[in-house]
Design goal:
With 260 residues, the chain is an alpha+beta fold. It has seven helices and eleven strands.
Length: 260
């Protein structure tokens, strides 16, 4: 593992998250992110653990800060991989779901321009597809939930340059992804890949990944990475496309009964 690359990724992700928050609370072993407009967005309302501390102290901070903001979920991200693995049994005993995440860096070569025509689109063009796709992923929720999860994407540009990439079939967005371009370092992150079930099996995901690789090179970002759930199939698919596991971080999620 290249510690320098990992440190750069960690620094970028912290900048990206902090600039979108409406409130950041500093803790001795990390910090809390809060967003007053997006209470249904777990990633915008969570506890970030960056240094060793006890699980009880972390959950107490989550109850005080997230609960104090009127939020019913608890979302904790432990950045140091070893610490996350060490704390996992205690969090699971408290009812948290453990979601280990792989940080994957692209180590492949240059790729040709995709055959499929990838378009740059605006947030306004993307928004209806975001709401449509969230309804597929999280059925049965209130419409406010889908609107918040869609509208939070507008804020991403506060933390990085954003290329919103899409493939169309007719008038419909068939597949989409984001490419985040750090403004302080030559880093790019591939994120939010989604292909609607009606359009799967056409190679659109691969086309979007290849376009992101090509764009990263064009923008002189020598470090391209993504994150993927450690125990889900997309990680293996990304490996076949040239991404290599570099490190892990650990998310711990406790959702209210209505969201399970």
């Amino acid at each position: 593992m290249d510690e320098t690359d990992l440190e750069r990724i960690t620094a970028f992700e912290e900048r990206f998250a902090r600039t979108q928050a409406t409130s950041v609370v500093e803790l001795g072993w990390g910090y809390a992110l809060l967003h007053r407009h997006f209470g249904h967005s777990y990633v915008h309302n969570r506890i970030m653990v960056t240094a060793p501390t006890a699980a009880a102290e972390i959950t107490a901070a989550a109850d005080e800060l997230l609960g104090g903001a009127g939020l019913h979920h608890r979302y904790i991200t432990v950045v140091p991989s070893g610490l996350g693995a060490e704390l996992a049994p205690e969090f699971r005993a408290q009812g948290f779901t453990h979601e280990p995440v792989a940080i994957m860096i692209y180590r492949g070569g240059l790729v040709e321009q995709p055959v499929d025509q990838v378009r740059d689109i605006t947030f306004e063009e993307l928004r209806p597809a975001l709401i449509r796709d969230w309804k597929v992923d999280l059925p049965g929720r209130q419409h406010e939930v889908y609107e918040q999860l869609a509208d939070r994407a507008r804020w991403y540009s506060q933390g990085a340059g954003i290329a919103r990439l899409a493939l169309y079939e007719g008038a419909a967005i068939a597949a989409r992804a984001d490419l985040h371009l750090d403004v302080e370092d030559r880093i790019a992150q591939f994120e939010s890949l989604n292909c609607h079930p009606d359009f799967r099996g056409n190679g659109y995901g691969r086309s979007l990944v290849h376009e992101a690789i090509r764009r990263s090179h064009e923008h002189r970002r020598e470090l391209l990475y993504l994150v993927a759930l450690l125990n889900d199939w997309p990680r293996l698919w990304y490996q076949r496309l040239g991404f290599v596991d570099t490190a892990q971080k650990h998310n711990f999620v406790l959702s209210p009964p209505s969201a399970r």
